[in-house]
Specification:
alpha/beta; 9 helices; 7-stranded mixed β-sheet; Rossmann fold
Length: 195
């Protein structure tokens, strides 16, 4: 059922869904492996889709950790609301990650320790990607990390405009195989963006 919904949403919204199938559990493991779940107080996820990464986050998090999900697709949003309705400290927004600064204010979240992203930067309009990444640098705490995956390394140079350190790992047990980018900022970049 989840795969059919994903395929349908890809056909209807190929630029924003970005994949024919949901991410594999192997990719989900790689996306969350660098997260310090004991200390993380606030985790944000962009484009959770059907919730493959979200399930991993909720399975491993400290119960007090607040998780904010931002999903632009209405069908996925409805699915996520139903799926995680019994979870405490989980907030789900139907909107664009471009507006993440406003969503944090709305839910009284002071910053993000980690931002996990399933957004397809290769197919999003450049202006949208720029705004999302710039606003991500504004909400991340000093040692915070932005973790995203892409199907190619094509957007690595683009993301490096915002994050000075990017560790790349490949996960071949995903259809298609994917690259996980663990991104962080140096002190100089934080000062530059006024974080």
């Amino acid at each position: 059922m989840r795969r059919l919904l994903f395929l349908f949403q890809y056909i209807v919204n190929p630029r924003t869904v970005g994949a024919i199938l949901p991410s594999s559990k192997f990719l989900a493991d790689k996306m969350v492996e660098k997260i310090n779940f004991r200390n993380a107080q606030y985790i944000v996820e962009y484009g959770p889709g059907t919730g493959v990464f979200t399930e991993k986050l909720l399975e491993k998090r400290n119960p007090k950790t607040v998780v904010l999900l931002v999903e632009n697709n209405k069908e996925f949003y409805i699915l996520l609301k139903e799926k995680f309705k019994r979870e405490k400290n989980v907030f789900i927004v139907n909107g664009s990650a471009e507006n993440i600064v406003n969503y944090l204010k709305e839910y009284h979240i002071p910053y993000a320790d980690y931002v996990i992203s399933g957004l397809p930067f290769a197919s999003l309009p450049k202006t949208v990607s720029l705004k999302i990444l710039l606003n991500t640098t504004k909400i991340l705490k000093k040692e915070g990390q932005f973790i995203t995956f892409q199907y190619t390394k094509f957007k690595k140079t683009f993301i490096e405009q915002f994050f000075t350190k990017i560790d790349v790992k490949r996960e071949i047990r995903n259809l298609p195989p994917a690259y996980v980018f663990n991104c962080s900022m140096s002190q100089n970049m934080e000062e530059y963006y006024g974080v």
